Give the backbone structure.
Amino acid sequence: MKKLAIVLTALLAAAFIFSIIDYVYAQESTPERGGGAAGCCACASAYAGTDDSNLDIIRQFRDRYLMTNPVGRGVAALYYNVFSPPVAHFIDTHPQVKPLARAVLTPVIAASTVAVDTTLPEKIAILGAVALACAALVVLIRRHHSKRARIS
């Protein structure tokens, strides 16, 4: 547990450092600098343009939740500097990967939609339902393992 706390602290520190160093890059991302279409390079590459409503949702999430605090800016800077440029390049040079990239982005879009387009009570209800489903899954897995242990 102590190692997990150290790792999380290091990740938060790295995110904070990226937010200080690279905030300007995330704000001024351009295709020439690897920023893709409208500063959302890997996502824009996956959706092959900037007109898709899914990209608008992701951008709204970025602007409302990430760019409003140091940790969020650090995450955005990490995305724009480290992760997104090579992924966008790969997607652009391998168009057959676009459907897979869109499938991988589906949970991100769903979570962003919930964050952007719901009220606080709706968010609490959704979070509660997800927590309940996770708890039920844990119970089912434990029951399965305990039955398996009795059989062995």
User: Anything to note?
Assistant: Residues 18-39 have pLDDT under 50 and may be disordered. The two ends are 31 Å apart (CA to CA).
